Amino acid sequence: MGLTAATDVPVAHGIGGAKDLPISPELAILGAVAALTVSFVVLAVAWRTPRFDEATSGTPAPSLLTTVVDSLAFRVLARTFGMAVFCWATFAAVFGKDLLTNPFFGMFYVWWWVGLVPLSVLLGPVWKAISPVRTINLLFAKVSGGSPDSGVFTYPERLGYWPAAFGLYAFVWMELVYPYSTELGPVRLWFAIYVAAMLLGGALFGTTFYERADPFEVYSSLVAKLSMWGRRDGAIIVRSPLANLDTVVPRPGLVAVVAVLFGSTAFDSFKDSSHWISFIQTTPVVKDHNWANQLANNAGLLVFCLGVGLVFWIGTASTGVGPDQRRRDLPRLFAHSVIPIIVGYIVAHYLSYLVEVGQDTLIRASDPLSDGSNYLGTGNLSVDYWLSYHPTFLANTKVISVVVGHVLGVIAAHDRAIKLLPKQHQVTGQLPLLVAMVAFTAGGLYLLFAA
After folding, report:
1. Among 246, 254, 370, 445, which is least packed by CB within 10 angstroms?
2. Which residues contact 80 (CB under 8 A, 6 or more apart)?
């Protein structure tokens, strides 16, 4: 992310090099691959029946919790908070100066994009609860006397998550490839187009549009499947995150969503690697022509996203199917198993970025006009660089996050395979997917070291 260098916060990409680890990169990658393989073998021997069932898993949370969360006061409080942050960011975007000290950049790239991950894992689908576009759509419906849940048309099922996948790609393109991603005008325009598209979609298709097409709601809701919070018959229940993960609805476009999320994060590491930087700086055509540089970055992002999707598609479709199954449906039926990998890799890649640049954004948010004001009282705070000052702890945390994410992905895929695949393919049918996950593990760790 370009914003790291734009603030006073040190560059916090990747792992910072092998010197940060008490072991060599080769041993870290070898150990991660071994852990993944051993996990698969243990599951094949000891996990022979499905264990995740939406209808039976989980225990009811205290009824008071459901009462509070579903109360009008709580919903109003959540939406007020979301609107307050939205209005403050809009104020900074419209009236603030075109400087990298403008807090809108941090709110856009750090709080919104990266901050949604820990919030959703801890609290559930948080964007759905605080989404300002949902709130504005609700207010429009109240004024017009209509219902926010229903629109003029019924949302086409065949579209599934495809609009969200394209929206997510548009965001990562703006963040990672667009050459003016730290200029206020283009970022403000992207934000305005997002808001306008969401309000138009909500008016046409109702709230179903937000559940399927809002890139940030889909992103938050998928990550929230790794939380311990679920619903059954309207009541809040507490259950294993893996059991919660099993409830992901395999709609069209789900593979595209996870491919964009994983592929873009991987490309963010790759573009900071010595190999890519050397290619950009030493290849005559690329070095001397801005259009060639931009073409290379655009191609790189697209190749990473398509590559992740293709590898996963091959890994899941290369198995036997039952008489009532279609091979082309298998990728999206197994796509939920990539979500822990995405979360693990986002933690690995953006942990110090979120903690340190996130603090810096809170400090700058008190001065949206960059004129020395301290409206929120946070302007006198200072950034705590504890993570950057403890590189070995940070590096080990990143490696563990990647490994744990992949192991959880293997568990989720194994349980789904037992449910779906014919008995003779329940173990052997997972081998191509295991190979794909081993490739993701080794590639992810390599990119973290290389950045």
Report:
1. 370
2. none
Smallest Cα–Cα separation from 254: which of 225, 228, 219? 219
53: left (phi over 0), alpha (psi -120 to 50) or beta: beta
Give pLDDT, residue 248.
95
Pair type for strands 59-60 and 229-232: unpaired
**Helix H segments across 125-240?**
126-130, 132-144, 162-176, 184-205, 208-213, 215-223
Q: Which residue has the tokens 């229903």?
A: 150
User: What's the number of CA atoms in the CB half-sphere (13 Å) around residue 216?
Assistant: 24
Range of the domain at 230: 3-450
Number of domains in the chain: 1
Do residues 252 and 332 touch, judged by C-beta distance below 8 A? yes
For 361, phi then psi, to 5°, come to -65, -40
What 8-state DSSP symbol labels residue 451?
-
What are the φ/ψ torsions at residue 277 (nearest 5 degrees)? -60, -40
Segment (H or E) for 448: helix 431-450
Distance CA 409, CA 34 (A): 15
| Biggest CA pair distance of the chain | 69
Rounded to the nearest 5 degrees, what angle is found at the Cα of 432, between the Cα atoms of 54 and 403? 65
Positive/negative CA dihedral, 272, 275, 276, 280: positive
Instruction: Residue 450: name the closest of 265, 259, 276, 306 by CA.
Output: 276
Instruction: Quickly tell me which residue has 């560059």 as its tokens.
Output: 11
- What phi, psi does 408 have (nearest 5°)? -65, -35
The vertex-93 CA angle with 90 and 97, nearest 5°, equals: 145
CA proximity to 331, closest of 348, 356, 314, 351 = 314
